[in-house]
Amino acid sequence: MEKLIEILEGLQPEVDYETVDNLIDGRYLDSLTILSLVSEIEDEFDVEIPTVEIIPANFNSAKKMWELIERLKEE
Q1: Helices 2-11 and 62-74: crossing angle, nearest 10°?
Q2: C-alpha distances in angstroms, 66 versus 12, 47, 54?
Q3: C-alpha span between 24 and 30 (Å, rounded)
Q4: What are the pLDDT digits (tens) for 6-31?
Q5: Cβ distance 37 to 61 under 8 Å?
Q6: Which end of the chain is more exposed for a tag (fewer CB within 10 A), N or C?
């Protein structure tokens, strides 16, 4: 999860990703940032994030993103 936090901090350094759980709903991450994030996650963790998985529920917190990554790695 440390690498995920590093990626997130590279995109939006002023956010506390350990505690914030409304990254999408709170407008910390916009659509362009999400697209960059998806690309970086796919490259770093060797997963493919299907379009149907790019929803606020999976990207509202670093914890939810990590759960998505873990789930995709198992598939």
Answers
A1: 130
A2: 17, 12, 13
A3: 7
A4: 999 999 999 999 999 999 999 999 99
A5: no
A6: C
d(CA 27, CA 12): 11
Cα separation, 53 vs 16, whole angstroms: 23
pTM given for the model: 0.93
Measured CA to CA, the distance from residue 58 to residue 24 in angstroms comes to 10
Q: Which residues contact 12 (CB under 8 A, 6 or more apart)?
A: 28, 29, 33
pLDDT in tens, 35-54: 999 999 999 999 999 999 99
Ranges of each domain in the chain: 2-74
